Amino acid sequence: MGYTPPLSCISLPLCYLFLFLFLSYVHIEASPLKLTREATTVSSRQRLSVSNDWKFFRSETNPDQISYDKRPNLPSTSNTESLKAWILPSGNQFIKDPAKRYSRPTSSQRTNVTYAQNGFDDSKWETVSLPHDWAIQGPFYRDDSVPVKGGMGRLPIHGVGWYRRKLSVSVEDKSKLMYLDIDGAMSYAMVWVNEILVGGWPYGYNSFRLDLTPYLKEGHDNLLAIRLDNPTDSSRWYPGGGIYRNVWITKVEKVHVGQWGTFITSRNVSKKSATIDFIIQVENEDDIAQEVNVATDVHVFDAKSGRAGEKVAEFPRAVVTIGGNQHLQAKGTTELNNPKLWGPYSTQHPNLYIAITRLSANNETFDTYETQFGIRSITYDGDKGLLVNDEHVEIQGVNQHHDLGALGAAFNIRAAERQLEVLQELGCNAIRMSHNPPSPELLELTDRMGFLVVDEIFDVWERSKTSADFSLIFPEWHEPDLRAFIRRDRNHPSIIVWSVGNEVGEQYTDVSGASIAQTLNDMVYEEDPTRPTTASMNYAKPYMPFPRALDILSLNYQGEGIRDAPAYSHLSGIKTPPLYPDFHRTFPEKLLWASESAASLSTRGTYIFPVTRGISAPVNDTSGGNSKYLHVSSYELYSADFGASPDKVFSAQDHNPFVAGEFVWSGWDYLGEPTPYYSARSSYFGIIDLAGFKKDRFYLYQARWRPDLRMAHILPHWTWPGREGKVTPVHVFSSADEAELFINGKPQGKKKKGNYEYRFRWDDVLYEAGEISVVTYKKGSEWAKASVRTAGPAMGLRVNADRMDINGDGKDLAYLTVEIVDEEGNIVPEADNEVMFSVSGPGEIVATDNGNPTDFTSFISQTRKAFSGKVLVIVRASPGEAGEITVMASAVELKSVKVKIAAH
Ligand SMILES: *[C@@H]1O[C@H](CO)[C@@H](O)[C@H](O)[C@H]1NC(C)=O
Ligand SMILES: *[C@@H]1O[C@H](CO)[C@@H](O)[C@H](O)[C@H]1NC(C)=O
Ligand SMILES: *[C@@H]1O[C@H](CO)[C@@H](O)[C@H](O)[C@H]1NC(C)=O
Ligand SMILES: *[C@@H]1O[C@H](CO)[C@@H](O)[C@H](O)[C@H]1NC(C)=O
Hints:
Blueprint: H1 12-23, E1 46-49, E2 54-59, E3 66-67, E4 81-82, H2 84-87, E5 126-128, E6 159-169, E7 177-182, E8 189-193, E9 196-201, E10 208-211, E11 219-230, E12 247-252, E13 255-267, E14 273-284, E15 290-302, E16 307-314, E17 318-322, E18 327-337, E19 352-361, E20 364-373, E21 378-381, E22 385-388, E23 391-392, E24 395-400, H3 413-426, E25 430-433, H4 440-449, E26 452-456, H5 474-489, E27 495-502, H6 510-527, E28 533-537, E29 552-556, H7 580-586, E30 592-598, E31 617-618, E32 625-626, E33 631-632, E34 638-639, H8 646-655, E35 661-665, H9 697-705, E36 712-715, E37 730-734, E38 738-743, E39 746-752, E40 760-762, E41 771-778, E42 781-789, E43 796-801, E44 805-806, E45 813-821, E46 834-840, E47 843-849, E48 863-865, E49 870-877, E50 883-891, E51 894-903
Parallel strand pairs: 3-4, 24-25, 24-35, 25-26, 26-27, 27-28, 28-29, 29-30, 30-35, 31-34, 44-51
Antiparallel strand pairs: 1-12, 2-5, 2-6, 6-11, 7-10, 7-12, 8-9, 8-11, 13-14, 14-18, 15-16, 15-17, 15-19, 19-20, 21-22, 22-23, 32-33, 36-37, 37-40, 38-39, 38-41, 41-42, 43-45, 45-49, 46-48, 46-50, 47-49, 50-51
The chain binds 2-acetamido-2-deoxy-beta-D-glucopyranose (4 copies).
C-alpha cells in the first residue's frame, strides 16, 4: 500500500468499502450513503481513487508547443510537435487486426516537456480534486466576438490544461502491475510518468486504461502528469474541460482478469429458469506459464445494502494453463432456477446479480473480480414494440446530455441520481445518452433504478458538424473507441441498444455513408451479439440505404413530421411529412421509435401573450417568443423550427400504435445549445430546467406517462396586475378525461378531452385577480383538483431541502430550493429578488442556480437572483466531518430563512 493514499482509502478493507460506495447507493429514499459492506474477500486486486492533491494549470494559448495532431484553430501552430504517434498505441487492445495496431515510435521527437518534468515548480498552480471541470466557474462570455459562444455554453472550456500529482510505490507494489484508469478526461489526454510519455486517449467521453508499471519506481515521488487540450468549436454543446470523471489506480498480480474482462449474457430466460453464459479474459503479463483455477459464483446483489447476498449458482470450475505473455478467454455456462428478472421501473423490478470471480493457484486467491449484471429477455418487435420479459413496455423516454447543470461536467453521483429521481417522478422509464458514453456510475444508477438505456457513442463520423469535432480523428479512433465503449458497458442490464451515431452527415451520402454504418454495425456484433444497433436519423428516408444497415429505426423528429403543420409553413428548411407509416411499411420487422421527439421550448414560469390557438407553433417574436429578453412562453405549445409541441407528438404516436415510444428532446435543460436564442447560456428544451425545477411541461408528460396518478396542474400563474379584463388563456394538464374550471368560484365550463387531445384549454378567459381552480373527473368520478391564487407582495423566503441528512464524504450533496413567498405563503411568480446564501458548520456552498437560461452570474456565486420565484443552492459536507450544517438564505426586505442539514 505505498501510494500516497487518498483520504478515503488507507487500508485494504477500507479500499473495499470505497469500492462498494457505488454499490451501496440506493435510489429514491432520502437516506444518506451507508457503507455497510465488510471486506470479506482479500486478494491483491486494489482499486484506489486518485482524486485529491492534484496541481492544475490551464492556458488559453498553447503553452508547450505540442499537440496531438495538426488541426484547425490550434493556437500558435508554428513549431508545434505532433505526438499522435505516441498516443495511437494506447488503443491497440481494441484494434482487432494485429496488422493495424501501432508501435511506439523510437525516434527522438520531443516528448519530455517542461510541465512533465520533475524539476518544474508547480507550487503556484491551483490545488484541485477530481472530478474537476475547469470551465464551470466561468466567467461567462457575453458578446459574440468571444472564443466560446452560445452553442458550447459561453464558458471557458478551451485551451490546454495540465494536472500533476505524486504517486508512491512500495516495495511490494514492485511485483505488481499498476494501471491508471481514467473514466473520462476532456480531451486529447496525454499521460507522462516520470517524464516519459506513456500514452493517452483523444476522445473525451470514453474511459481508458494505461499501464504505468514500466515507468514507475519505488518511492514516494513518482510524478504523474496529464495534459488535456480542448479545442474551441469541437462540440455542438457544452463539453466541460478537464479530468471531469474519476481516476483510479488499479493494482493487480501479473496474472489477472483483464480490463472490462468479463461478459455475462443470458438466454432462454423465463420466470422458471435462465441459461447464463460467462466469458472471462485472463491475462498473464509474466514471462512464465501459469496454471490458474478460475471459479465464479453468482450471488443475489442487494442494491439497497450494497451487499452480495445469497449464492444462487456457480459456473463450472476451470483449470487453465496460460502461457507467458498470453491472454486467454475462458467460457462457462450455468442454469439458474427461478431467476429474479431485471425489468424497468415502474411496471417491473430491477433485480440484479453479482458474479464473483476468483483466480487462484495452490489454494491462494490472487485476483477477485466482480461483475454486476441482470437477467432479462428483450424482444424488439416491429408491431408490438419493446417487450421486456415478455411484457410490453411503452418507451417513455428522454434524452439527457452529460452535464449536471451548475456543477458542469464534473461527475457527481448524487447530482446524477437527483436527475434520475425527478425523471422517475415524471414517469420516464428510458434514457438516451445523447450523444456520448456516460460516466460508468450513471449506468450503475440506471441498472439499480430500472431505466432502459440507449447507450450512444458518436455525434459525428467522417463528416464534421463543427470544425474541430471527432471527425478529425474518426479514421484512426472509431474502432478502438467503439470496441472500448462496448466492452466497458456490455454487462449493464439497463442498456437495450447500442447507438453508433446521431444525425450523422453520412445519412446524406448514400451507399458510402451506409457502408460506414455497416462497418460500425458489424463491429458492434463482434463485441456483443446480444443487442441490436441503431443510429438516429433526422434525414435518412426509408428508400435510402442508410436505415438498412442498422437494426432499430431511430427517428429524430421525422416520425411526427418536420415543419409540416400550417403554423410552420412560412419556414424555409427541409419539410418532412410524418414518416412513421412509410418506415413501418418498408421495414415491418424493425422496431421503430422516436429517438428524439418534440424539441419543445420554454422558459420556466414565463408566459407570453397572445397564445396560439393551434396545438403547435414555431417560436418567433409574435409566436411565444421574446428575442429581447430571450425567453419562450411556457404554454408549452412552442417548438424549435424543426420540432413540435408535446401534443402534436402524442397525436402522431397514437395514430401509429406500432411505434415503440419516444425519447423527448430533452429531459433536463443542459448547458449550451440555447435554441432559439444563442446569446443565452443554456437550453430551453428541457421538461425540467437547469436547476432541476419542473416546467409546466412536466405535468403534460406526467399526465400521459402516469395515467393512474391523480394529478391536475393549472397554468399560467395568476398574478397579472394590469391584465384585468384581458384574454388570458388557462390550460390544465391532468390524467383525467374531464375538467371544470372556476374563476373566483364562477364556473367557466366543463371540457372533455377529445380524441388526440392531451390538455384542457379555456382560451377565452378574461383575467381577474383572485383564485382559479379546476376540478377534474375520470370516467365520471372526481379525480384531482388544483388551484392557483393571485400572490401579494413578496414578504419572505421559504426553503425546502431534498434531503435533511447527507454523507460527510465531501461528495454527497443537499439541494435546497428557496422560494419567494407572499404573506400567505403563495409563491410570487415573477419574483427576482437577489438571495444571499451562507453556511456555518462542516459544509460549503458548491453552486447556485435558478434555471434562467440568460443568467450569467457564475455558478459558484453565493448570491443569486431568484427566477420566477425560485432559486437553488447546492451544499456539500466537508470531507470526513460530521455535524450540523446550517444554511441561511436572506434577501433585502424579506424575512430570511435557515435550514439545518445533518452530515454523517
Ligand atoms: C526531461 O528533460 C529534463 C530537462 O531537459 C531532463 O533533465 C530529464 O532528464 C529528461 N527526462 C527524460 C526521461 O528524458
Ligand atoms: C432453450 O431451451 C430449449 C429447450 O429447453 C433448447 O432446445 C434451446 O436450444 C434453448 N435455446 C437457447 C438459445 O439456448
Ligand atoms: C486446497 O485446499 C483443500 C481444502 O482445504 C485441500 O484439500 C487441498 O489439498 C489443497 N490443495 C493444495 C494444492 O494446497
Ligand atoms: C411567426 O410564427 C407564426 C406561426 O406561429 C407565423 O404565422 C408568422 O408568420 C411568424 N412570423 C414571422 C415574422 O416569421
